[in-house]
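Worked example 3 (structure in, sequence out).
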């Protein structure tokens, strides 16, 4: 259908745990995911990365989930999120160390998959913070030239001004957008980077399955062509994972008929950003495959 719009459905945190990896691999295979953001130094990244690449061929884009808040090794810069935000806005982050950390994570992605990432975003949206965003944009432009990855825009779509979402979810995404999304968008435009058209999927990780499906219906109602729905599906538990219950909830809903029906009701289909430019070329499936 020519009237259908593309929505990029992106799972974050691949490489963090086996339960996350298995849920994401299923989503790519079934077609309810069209992008995967990868922790390239995560504890189980190398274990399943090649399998992911094989399943994603022609189905999903694979990106780097730039991490500055999870301690996976001794070399990379790592901060608590609050401390990182304060240091970023105080211009107190070590630029050289940030560059080295970003380069290591890019190299880990490239060494494992043999290619550059299709896109780059940030774990806990760190890529849009002051200092960090400059490091990201400069490094990508220098490393990849005209074939640079696209960047995640963390601001909500323009259609969200009268959102039916609960106040806490609206408030959280307003705070997220205020932490650098507008400035990153301007820099990306100036430097020729493609971005998604608004971010959906921000909430407090506090919904049950009924509540999450209600959130999804609201987000899909706000989606424009090439909006991005961020999600965090997962199976089982991982010690220290504060959102393990939310991961299981998201997984159950995203693979179900409720999500497929909501996509159809809003004339959306799951697709890839790189094959859906302004021409509104559809993704690889109708609603989603299978």
């Amino acid at each position: 259908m020519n009237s259908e719009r593309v929505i990029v459905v992106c799972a974050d945190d691949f490489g963090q745990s086996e339960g996350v990896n298995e849920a994401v691999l299923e989503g790519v295979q079934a077609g309810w995911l069209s992008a995967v953001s990868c922790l390239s130094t995560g504890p189980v990244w190398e274990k399943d990365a090649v399998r992911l690449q094989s399943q994603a061929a022609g189905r999903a884009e694979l990106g780097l989930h730039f991490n500055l808040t999870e301690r996976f090794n001794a070399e990379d810069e790592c901060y608590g999120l609050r401390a990182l935000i304060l240091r970023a806005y105080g211009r107190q982050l070590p630029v050289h160390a940030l560059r080295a950390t970003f380069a290591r994570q890019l190299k880990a992605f490239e060494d494992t998959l043999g290619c550059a990432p299709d896109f780059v975003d940030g774990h806990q949206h760190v890529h849009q913070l002051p200092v960090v965003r400059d490091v990201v944009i400069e490094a990508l432009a220098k490393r990849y030239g005209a074939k640079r990855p696209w960047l995640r825009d963390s601001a909500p779509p323009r259609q969200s001004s009268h959102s039916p979402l609960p106040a806490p979810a609206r408030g959280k995404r307003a705070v997220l957008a205020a932490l650098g999304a507008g400035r990153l968008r301007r820099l990306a435009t100036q430097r020729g980077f493609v971005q998604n058209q608004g971010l959906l999927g921000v909430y407090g990780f506090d919904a049950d399955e009924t509540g999450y499906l209600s959130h999804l219906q609201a987000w899909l109602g706000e989606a424009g062509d090439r909006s991005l729905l961020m999600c965090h599906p997962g199976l089982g538990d991982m010690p220290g994972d504060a959102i393990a219950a939310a991961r299981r909830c998201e997984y159950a809903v995203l693979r179900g008929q409720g999500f497929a029906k909501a996509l159809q009701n809003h004339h959306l289909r799951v697709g890839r950003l790189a094959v859906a430019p302004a021409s509104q070329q559809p993704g690889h499936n109708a609603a989603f495959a299978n």
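Notes: Residues 6 and 282 are 6 Å apart (CA to CA). The longest helix spans residues 95-113.
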